[in-house]
């Protein structure tokens, strides 16, 4: 019986990192809730995900972007702009934390309990936030070498 346990443990151990990365398909389903406010539109103007939403910023290229700096979006809250000025760059860790509770994230990041986010949406779980990150990241612009 022991020889079958080791392969099962190895399979489980190798599956865990993929799960922690997020599931793009689940993220696509979860993005349906986001598309009322957000779109993923590439530099050519092609809509890759969502609709022609304008309430929130375009999420194309958001990963690695300084917070509050999407060039075609001018309606950021003062705390979001302040977070960007303080050095907030959208990494997986911060993006996932932000999606779970945008206001608490900004309050913590800025050490200001009066800071508020204009985004009222919160993900149901960290897994859903990771899935959304994986989905958004799948549209990342390619880097020229």
From TrEMBL:
- The residues forming the signal peptide are 1-20
Superkingdom field: Bacteria
Residue limits of the Cytochrome c domain?
22-140
Cross-referenced InterPro entries, in alphabetical order?
A: Cyt_c-like_dom, Cyt_c-like_dom_sf, Cyt_c_1A/1B
What PROSITE patterns does the record tag this protein with? CYTC
Provide the alphabetized UniProt keywords.
Electron transport, Heme, Iron, Metal-binding, Signal, Transport
GO MF terms, alphabetically ordered? electron transfer activity; heme binding; metal ion binding
Give the protein's recorded name: C-type cytochrome
Which lineage ranks, top first, belong to the organism behind this chain? Bacteria, Pseudomonadati, Pseudomonadota, Alphaproteobacteria, Rhodobacterales
């Amino acid at each position: 019986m022991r020889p079958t346990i080791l392969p099962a443990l190895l399979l489980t151990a190798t599956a865990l990192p993929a799960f922690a990365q997020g599931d793009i398909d689940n993220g696509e389903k979860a993005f349906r809730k986001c598309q009322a406010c957000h779109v993923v539109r590439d530099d050519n103007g092609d809509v890759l995900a969502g609709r022609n939403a304008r309430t929130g910023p375009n999420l194309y290229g958001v990963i690695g972007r300084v917070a509050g700096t999407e060039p075609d979006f001018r309606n950021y809250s003062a705390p979001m702009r302040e977070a960007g000025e303080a050095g907030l760059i959208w990494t997986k860790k911060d993006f996932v934390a932000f999606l779970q509770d945008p206001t608490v994230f900004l309050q913590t990041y800025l050490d200001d309990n009066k800071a508020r986010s204009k985004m009222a949406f919160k993900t149901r779980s960290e897994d859903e936030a990771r899935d959304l990150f994986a989905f958004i990241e799948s549209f990342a612009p390619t880097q020229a070498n």
